[in-house]
Amino acid sequence: MVPRFAERMRNLGTETAFEVLAKAKALEKQGKSIVHLEIGEPDFDTPKNIKEAAMKAMNTGYTHYTPAAGIPEFREAIAEYISKTRKIPVSPDEVVVTPGAKPIIFFSILAYVNPGEEVLYVNPGFPMYESVANFVDAKTVPIPLLEENDFRADPEYIKSKITKKTKMIIINSPENPTGGVLTKEDLEIIADSIANRDDILVLSDEIYSRIIYEGIHHSIASLPAMKEKTIILDGFSKTYAMTGWRLGYGIMQKDLAQKVTQLMINSNSCTSAFTQMAGIEALKGPQADAEKMVAEFKRRREVIVEGLNKIKGFSCKKPHGAFYVFPNIKKTGKTGRELSDYLLNTAGVATLSGTAFGRFGEGYLRLSFANSVENIQKALTRISEAIGNL
Ligand code: PLP
């Protein structure tokens, strides 16, 4: 019998990174050597003080349900951290803790966007933006990120796409997959374009806010009158190498926080208790390990950008943040999908086609440099040889 799934499942997308990872693992099982540049997670271990805080919490009774929006002490620590880093007053009841930051995307769209309403989102961009907007039957309006604009969203384009039906604008800086970083001026124009609209919310994905190589991170929430119109998404996966812990949060106006909490009650009940306690240590404890990771990513960025630019048909801009490069591969004469399949099967290098992040990603590949310099060099040699054989 073929099961009849709910109609809505037709609209839900996926994250190709996990599919390519599965394919690469299958090849490894057959004995092939693979360099993994497909998945977006730091290769470092979680800092020791954070692991110890989790163990201590586990041994002192933090093994039960917690309030759905998070342990009060943790929400307070997050409110304090965001108040300090974004220079806005945040209170704990504007914080919702979730298992990873992904549910903030899912829940805020589910809670705020009706079928037929419009969601603007960066493209190429994190695939969940489009996927979840489609899932709720919203009208999806991609904001193209162009290489000639240093992969920054063009605020004038955003302005031109705002209609009566616009409900949400999703931005991400530093950006996955391009490494683009929005300037304060970009954010000011975006803010200005919705100055007379109280019904539009900006979902500002700031998960890479601490992984930035030039300048400083600016949050749109810090601009005048924007705090109430912004949902800040942030978390621990990238900054503290905690992808498997599943720990993230959103900062949003109280009313929305209550709706998102209701969605937490209906899905997860709460985020793991000892993980939340470890989150307090992450925010309040020493930051040296997190800073060391960024310094190492910066070193690797030089190696991968320089190496890719020497490969025939590739040209690669330096990303300003996050840990991905997004080389232009148009001159190889292959599509992104063809080239990433070829590199996986022929060279044993797992990458993603730019189209895994939306249609404006055609002509590009995404490679993660959250891998050792040694592995990056191995990948570069293999790609170079494979391209020579095209
Ligand atoms: N947003 C962006 C742009 C990301 O790249 C990721 C992870 O890949 C997330 C959000 C979600 O992170 P997590 O759910 O692991 O906290």
Task: Report what the structure shows.
Helix 2 runs antiparallel to helix 9 and helix 4 packs parallel to helix 5. The model has no long low-confidence stretch (mean pLDDT 96). With 390 residues, the chain is α/β, with parallel strands linked by helices. The chain folds into 2 domains: 140 residues, Alpha-Beta Complex (Aspartate Aminotransferase, domain 1), CATH 3.90.1150.10; 235 residues, Type I PLP-dependent aspartate aminotransferase-like (Major domain) (Aspartate Aminotransferase, domain 2), CATH 3.40.640.10. Strands 2-8-7-6-5-3-4 form a 7-stranded mixed β-sheet, with helices on both faces. Strand 3, helix 5 and strand 4 form a beta-alpha-beta unit. Bound molecules: pyridoxal-5'-phosphate (PLP). Pyridoxal-5'-phosphate binds next to loops.
Summary of the model, kept short:
The protein is α/β, with parallel strands linked by helices. It has helices at 16-29, 48-59, 72-86, 102-112, 127-135, 155-161, 184-193, 254-267, 273-284, 288-309, 336-347, 373-388, and strands at 35-36, 95-98, 118-123, 139-144, 166-172, 201-205, 230-235, 248-251, 324-325, 349-350, 352-353, 365-368. 39% of the residues lie in helices and 13% in strands.
